[in-house]
TrEMBL record:
UniProt keyword annotations, A-Z: Coiled coil, Glycosyltransferase, Starch biosynthesis, Transferase
Lineage: Eukaryota, Viridiplantae, Chlorophyta, core chlorophytes, Chlorophyceae
A GO molecular-function descriptor: starch binding
Residue ranges the record marks as coiled coil: 62-96
Protein name, per record: starch synthase
Biological process terms in GO annotation: starch biosynthetic process
Superkingdom, natural source: Eukaryota
Pfam families: CBM53 (PF16760), Glyco_transf_5 (PF08323), Glycos_transf_1 (PF00534)
Pathway(s) the chain acts in: Glycan biosynthesis; starch biosynthesis
UniProt-listed Enzyme Commission number(s): 2.4.1.21
Catalytic activity entry: [(1->4)-alpha-D-glucosyl](n) + ADP-alpha-D-glucose = [(1->4)-alpha-D-glucosyl](n+1) + ADP + H(+)
Entry's family note: Belongs to the glycosyltransferase 1 family. Bacterial/plant glycogen synthase subfamily.
Source species: Astrephomene gubernaculifera
Length: 667
């Protein structure tokens, strides 16, 4: 008899074993040996044993969950930390940009102390004046004290800065000021394009009041998203709320909310009232951390399966605008800002000033944002007239549409603020659709893994190491269809692989692309005609270059998403594409200023360029940019990979635009 001792786990009910000597086994003729086990000595009964076992399993599960929760907390903490650093950076860039025009001594304005403002008018409307005056107030102009006009001391020999000294009240938290060439009244002002200059003051016992902003909109992602408008309402709302302000959203309550997983079991009754010849119910829920109120009139106006598309959309949405205002009035809300969007809630602006402002809902000012100028221009014009400020989704697009007859008469209150992307939604670091997560430090490996996965999935040749050019786009006139086709030809011509993900609403365009796919598709070109968000993540990650040759582009998200995934954008310089993509060869100055607030990239050693751009609308124009990118890929791979790393590190989130919107709200 041979013997050995075995420790029996508490939860074991049977023992299975074989016996061996080197490569010889006795496994009971293939059946193995089995021995039933008796209850452990510590368990007096079967019930006690089961209870003990259940407890042990429970404890193990509790430990596993608390470990997972700890890990999730740690991830969240790191993400928060990263976000905070990014927000700090945005503010630092802003300070640097202002510093180009002015600085103070001491650098931090002290409450109850004295501050000297140094001002260089070289790049302002006041360049070359003989006299300059400084005038201002405190706490966003809400303080009873003000100062100036103070005649500024002109610059000394060889200097450029004018200066003036001001006493700071003890209870000031903000210093507000403008410059002029005459002491008050007529004359030329530098009021920072209508925003005035604002510097934080340290040491006041009083803090800045948070703003209360109420969006009135007919779309909101993810519960009611049709296009970019829905994304902006949610993302902008969240970003502004994160800066410490109160943000609420008023939406219609559509029929399709019944099936919304986000709203399930969440809707609560808020109030009801009689208005507009019907009964109006208001419910509420929290969506993406934002408080949302849903307007549900019993006349069935929003008992619709989609947001748009009923015969009477204009009547329904005008009704919604006023019902939303009625709700604010009835519940005694007094937001600082009503923010309305596109033609669908444009009516808020005029209706507020005519029918609500004089009758109790008196505090708000109205901001209006144009996401798409192609629909409802008459209504957009009315809102442009009635609102206090209106915006569109990028500075260059604002410049391009500024002469439009509905905008031009109100151009003095119009500006462009670019959209952002959600870096958590579009994340190469943690992404279930990618074979391997990656960041700037391992972009080369991460993209290589994605490239192989994409090639296998789309049936492209995998054995060689060709570069990939991708297009992810709706295939419509706006997006530059002929140039997209040309990009496909040129890419194959230069030895690369081309991937297109797109859908064409127009059957003629679709037929065109079908022909192209028939002609080129196969080993080195893949055409996917569908809307497929998971696939889009893999394409952005796998591509070396992403082409966006739009004829016009209010903001554009594709190029920003591409950069987040380390793909180099090749774009036509129009609208938001011009505000986000800086050509490696001719945009160094603009890039350094926009991204770092540096007015001299050579001196500061900054290269913040991030792509390739062209301006014409024909094939040679696109070639000019595309060929340079491909040449760089062939001739200097290390440089190209450095560029991929750099574009990944740039911040195209809502951090920056949120600050611009907050300044706008305050103004
Ligand atoms: P627009 O709103 O004019 O279509 P944007 O560039 O602002 O253009 O936004 C396009 C968005 O839609 C991007 O997020 C892009 O990835 C996505 N997209 C476009 N076509 C497709 C498609 N066929 N499949 C998946 N996503 C797509």
């Amino acid at each position: 008899w041979f013997e050995c001792e075995v420790e029996v786990p508490y939860e074991a009910v049977a023992m299975n074993f074989v016996i061996n000597y080197y490569e010889h086994y006795d496994n009971n003729g293939g059946a193995d040996f089995k021995a039933p086990l008796f209850l452990p000595a510590s368990a007096p009964s079967l019930d006690a044993w089961q209870a003990g076992l259940a407890e042990a399993l429970r404890q193990r599960e509790v430990a596993r969950r608390s470990e997972a929760a700890r890990a999730a907390e740690e991830r969240e903490r790191r993400a928060e930390e990263k976000k905070r650093r990014a927000q700090e950076l945005v503010k630092a860039v802003e300070r640097r940009k202002v510093r180009h025009v002015l600085f103070t001594q001491p650098e931090v304005v002290p409450a109850g102390g004295e501050v000297t403002v140094h001002y260089c008018p070289r790049d302002t409307p006041l360049a070359g004046r003989q006299q300059l005056y400084l005038m201002g107030g405190w706490n966003r102009w809400s303080h009873r004290r003000s100062f100036g006009p103070i005649a500024m001391h002109p610059p000394g020999e060889g200097g450029e800065h004018w200066q003036a000294t001001v006493q700071v009240p003890k209870d000031a938290f903000k210093m507000d000021f403008v410059f002029a060439d005459v002491p008050g009244g007529e004359g030329v002002y530098d009021n920072r394009g209508g925003f005035d200059y604002h510097l934080p003051v340290e040491g006041s016992p009083i803090r800045e009041q948070p703003l209360h902003i109420c969006h009135i909109a007919v779309e909101m992602a993810p519960i009611a998203k049709v296009g970019g408008l829905g994304d902006v309402v949610t993302a902008l709302g969240r970003a502004v709320q994160e800066q410490g302000h109160l943000v609420e959203v008023v939406l219609p309550r559509y029929d399709f909310f019944t099936h919304s997983p986000v709203l399930k079991d969440q809707l609560r009754f808020e109030t009801e009232f009689e208005w507009g010849g019907t009964r109006v119910y208001v419910t509420t829920a929290v969506v993406e951390n934002l408080r949302v109120f849903f307007i549900e009139p019993r006349n069935g106006f929003f008992a619709t399966p989609t947001v748009y598309g009923r015969y009477d959309d204009e009547v329904r949405f005008d009704f919604f605008c006023k019902a939303a205002l009625e709700f604010l009035l009835k519940t005694g809300r007094q937001p600082d800002i009503l923010h309305c969007h596109d033609w669908s809630t444009a009516h808020v602006a005029a209706a507020y000033w005519r029918d609500y402002h004089p009758y109790g809902l008196h505090k708000p000012r109205v901001v209006f944002t144009i996401h798409n100028l192609n629909y409802g221009q008459k209504k957009i014009g009315e809102a442009a007239h009635a609102c206090q400020k209106f915006t569109t989704v990028s500075p260059t697009y604002a410049f391009e549409v500024g002469a439009n007859p509905v905008i031009a008469p109100h151009a003095h209150k119009f500006l462009g603020i670019r959209n952002g992307i959600d870096p958590e939604l579009w994340s190469p670091e943690e992404n279930p659709f990618l074979p391997q997560g990656y960041g700037p430090e391992n972009v080369v490996e991460g993209k290589k893994a994605a490239r192989q996965a994409l090639r296998q999935r789309l049936g492209l040749t995998t054995w060689n190491d060709k570069f990939i050019v991708a297009v992810v786009s709706r295939l419509t006139g706006q997006k530059g269809v002929p140039l997209i086709k040309h990009a496909a030809f040129r890419t194959l011509d230069r030895g690369g692989q081309f991937v297109l993900l797109g859908s064409a609403p127009d059957p003629r365009v679709q037929a065109d692309f079908d022909a192209l796919a028939g002609q080129m598709g196969g080993q080195d070109a893949a055409f996917c005609f569908k809307y497929d968000e998971p696939l889009s993540h893999l394409i952005y990650a796998a591509a070396d270059m992403v082409v966006v040759p739009s004829m016009f582009e209010p903001c554009g998200l594709t190029q920003m998403i591409a950069m987040r995934y380390g793909s180099v954008p090749i774009v036509r310089h129009t609208g938001g594409l011009r505000d986000t993509v800086f050509d490696v060869d001719f945009d160094k100055e603009r890039a350094a200023w926009e991204l770092y607030g540096s007015s001299d990239w050579r001196r500061d050693g900054i290269d913040a360029t991030n792509g390739f751009a062209f301006t014409g609308t024909d094939a040679p124009a696109l070639d000019y940019a595309l060929n340079r990118a491909i040449d760089a890929w062939y001739n200097d791979r290390a440089w190209f990979q450095g560029l991929q790393r750099r574009v990944m590190e740039q911040d195209w989130s809502w951090n920056r635009p949120a600050i611009d919107y907050i300044e706008l709200y305050f103004s």
